Structures are given as C-alpha cells and as structure tokens.
Amino acid sequence: MRADTVAPQAGGTLAVVLAGGLARRMGGGDKPLRTVGGRSLLDHLLDRLRPQAAAIVINANGDPARFAAYGLEVIADTLPGHPGPLAGILAALDHAAAAHPALPWVVSVTGDAPFIPSDLVARLHASRAAEAVPLACARSAGQAHPPIGLWPVALRGALRAALLEGERKIDRWTARHGCAHADWPAEPFDPFFNANAPEDLAEAERILRLATAPST
Predict the structure, then answer these.
(1) Rounded to whole angstroms, how far apart are CA atoms 135 and 153?
(2) How many domains are contained in the chain?
(3) Is residue 216 included in any domain, yes or no?
(4) Which of 118, 167, 189, 202 is placed for a possible disulfide with 162 were both Cys, Cβ 3.0 to 4.6 Å?
(5) Residues 27-82: pLDDT tens digits?
C-alpha cells in the first residue's frame, strides 16, 4: 500500500485507548484507572486526546462496566488469548470499518501514558505523509513507542492475517509496510512516559506538576 502525500486532518481519525493488558507489574487491575493528582491516568489522557480525534473508543477485555463513567464505547479483542496490543489495534480497525466508515485512520495510545502531546495525531499524520508510507509511530529522545501510532483501516486484513500467523511484535509488522517516526524531545519530561509499576505513580505526580506548569 502506498500513502498519498497529503496528511489528512485529525477529523478523519478514530482514537483507541489500549487498556487490554494484564498489568502484572502494577499488581493487576486496570492501570488506566490508577490515580495521579486526584484523577485517573485515563482522565489525564482523555483531556489531551479528545481535541485530536473525531471519536474515541477503549480497547479492554472483561466487564466493560468498569469504564462506564467515561461514556466511551468499550471494544474487546476480536482474537482470543490476550495476544497483545496488536490485537487491540486490530479490534479498533475493525470497529472503525464497521461503525465509522468515514474515518479511514486509527491512532492508538496506551492507557497508562497520561501525558501524550497535544499535537500527537497531527504530527503522526504529517510524518507518514512526508515519507509516503502508510504507518507512523511516536518516538522520543530516539526511542520508538510502537503502541502509540497511526494505522490505516485499509491494512486491517493484513494485520489480521499476521496475527493469525503468530505475529506479536508491533515494530516487526510495521516494518513490513513502511513506518515513519514522529519525534519529540524527552525534556523537561518524556510525553510518552507510561506508568507500568506502582513506583511509577510517584514519577507521574512529578511529571504532572511539570506538565501543568505555566512555562511548560
């Protein structure tokens, strides 16, 4: 698949919050519902994500009622056995095709990354278009963040086939099709910081103070 050279507007993009992991390092439960600054990680994330996408869904398995307070549709993996974030991305691509046919793009973010940039979607689109490839992912200080990326709905068949063949690594699959990187600095904080373990919540509190400071 070759991409066109004009970056579409974020209005053509469905966002999916990947919250289907098992959170073993966090001690189980739903990482996005852990609190920082008196609000959940998911609250902070949605504040930054809502202006950037035409619609938002949450990818999570199990009882969707635990996310009811957010008023967002919850979609489960369409493949069994918790095959990882690629399965959540596939679920979002399938959902976009069925429920949002006017949205040809999906942006994926992880539910434990509350400080994503306010220009994430626009810059992913611009990077993909500049390199004329179908995919893009975020990168900070030279480190790629494969689950935070831009996906064309048109590649959902290829992704499903790869998952059924046993593929689980995001960057290995995206490399088959062509993936651009959109770069951000990691100072004064990494916008893609993710809270994986209980001790990361203290660091998230520190970052929150930086992120909300007038000079940041």
Answers:
(1) 11
(2) 1
(3) no
(4) 167
(5) 456 889 999 999 999 999 999 999 999 999 999 999 999 999 999 999 999 898 88
